[in-house]
Design goal:
The complex is a heterodimer of chains A (about 130) and B (about 500). By secondary structure, chain A is an alpha+beta fold. In chain A, about 15% of the residues lie in helices and about 50% in strands. The chains are: A alpha+beta (about 130), B mainly alpha (about 500).
Chain lengths: ~130, ~500
Amino acid sequence: MRFSTLGRAGLLIALALFAGCRKSASDTAAIKVDLTFAPSPPTVGKISATLTLAGKNNQPLSNVEVRLEGNMNHAGMKPSFADLSEEAPGRYVGTLDFTMGGDWFVLVTARLPDGGRLERKIDVLGVQAR
Amino acid sequence: MSVVREIAAPSNQVATFDLLRVPALGRFLRWRYSRIAFQVPLLFVGMLMVAHAFWGPQLAPKNLAALLTWVHFRGLVVVVILLVGNLFCMACPFMLPRELARRWFHPRWNWPPALRNKWPAIVLFVFVLFVYELCDLWSDPWWTGVLIVGYFVAATVVDALFTGASFCKHVCPVGQFNFLGSALSPLEVAIRDKDVCTHCKTHDCIQGRRDHSGETDMSTLKRLPVIQRGCELELFQPNKVGNLDCTFCLDCVYACPHDNVGIMTRLPAAELTISGTRSGVGIFERRFDLTMLVTVFTFGAVLNAFAMISPVYALEQWAAGVTGLRVEWPILSGIFIVVLVLEPAIILGAAAAVTRWGVATREPILGVVNRFARSLIPIGFGIWLAHYGFHFFTGFLTVIPVAQNAVIQAIGQPLLGEPLWQLSGFSAAIVFPMQVGFMGLGLLGSWIVAAVIARDMSPTRTWSAFAPWAVVHALLFASAYWIMMQPMDMRGTFLGA
């Protein structure tokens, strides 16, 4: 019985390690994500957001569905969303609404052409109140 | 002078509305397990918050611990205190593990005499305010979870070692906040008929009810087991004044053999106009620790709100430029010392000095400050209400999408539906007039309390005694109004943005 329990635990650990080592459908760690705003530094209100995506060797990543979600660091604030459209290869633009001054973070969610999913958190510090 | 006497009916029965007389609600509240019925759901919510703090997303707007602690709990506490009373202490979940612990660990020690005051709580109050700003607790779920767990541990350990409600009375900073705020509440635990207390021999409301089974010898009676404890905060009901130190635990209600304790309506803030000895508290106007607690409560309200607007960052950057410091804690310490120590010392000292001159009294300056300190409570509470109310009223619905999101992340199924991220609360434009109203009511309350204190101090020169304190209250109102007028600029970055 004891061996059985130990054996099950070992099997679970092995499975977990295997799952952890398994390569995902799309290796997104190497993808370079750059988010800029105009005006910069960003101000309260609806402002232009530009996201550039590049893979290995700085190759622009095209045909990606990109969504931004802006949140304040403080809880209790409604998030802002923006679906970006591809303006040029690897360059996506849209409008994000910063509803209040202060520190924000933007969650970038992208669905890659190969089915992979990219998620990044980008801090946007010091959005300036008008 | 005594408000209690003024509202007493000729038969010595206090002629006010009694919540415990309300048919179904009153019966439920008189049930000895009613407090536990409130505590258990909050303990469950607390456990969920702790779990989400440590294993949920480390993003404050998506984390139940950060959201419920810094938006809903704080907001609901001040709103409920204003509308009803100190219900959070009544439903305090930190007390449940303490009750369990006391089944195995019977406290042997009495709280040290040197600490039988508010100084431990004052230190912790300032510490929590400081850590909140330094570590940006509002944006950190993990540390918020540590704070909640730390609270459970502290309450359990203190009350497992020391008798009575030592944690509530001397240590808990949230409790002190609630005690002071509930001076503005419309409800108070109080006796129904003074004559009944006058003829009472057993004083079960403070001694606890014992299984005497016909025993009448008082010396023997005290050795019998307590089957219902009395007030652990040392508030003897017939001499109790107001809500200070009252946790609404209702032990006195359960213990009174004459069913003579109720939850009565009263005039909010009237207790602040009463001078003299209070059971379990002593003489308010002679306790410097209470003056300091009120000072930290009031000026801390201004500081806590000030830290959320951009001028504080400009101030920190200026201080960093002057001193060459590149770490925040010494600069933040300086701001705390200025706002919580130097500024009150100068402003309150100056008001007391002018009062002394105006009424030609030789009473020491500190004595005058102690006398008028309680007049700061209404404006202080108004500022807390305006600040916490802003977060609560603008974001009370955000708990819905965050809970929906938490369920999806926990079990992978949208049992509560897909997150409705568009939900938030009232717009800031609607909430701002409410904030001004809360602070305006606080200012009015402070002026009324100060006017009564001034009349007691000098019936012939009331205006001379009142005017300096009216100016202090107006200055606090003006500074808080200016802060609330600023765009909220919630940053956690020092020298970074």
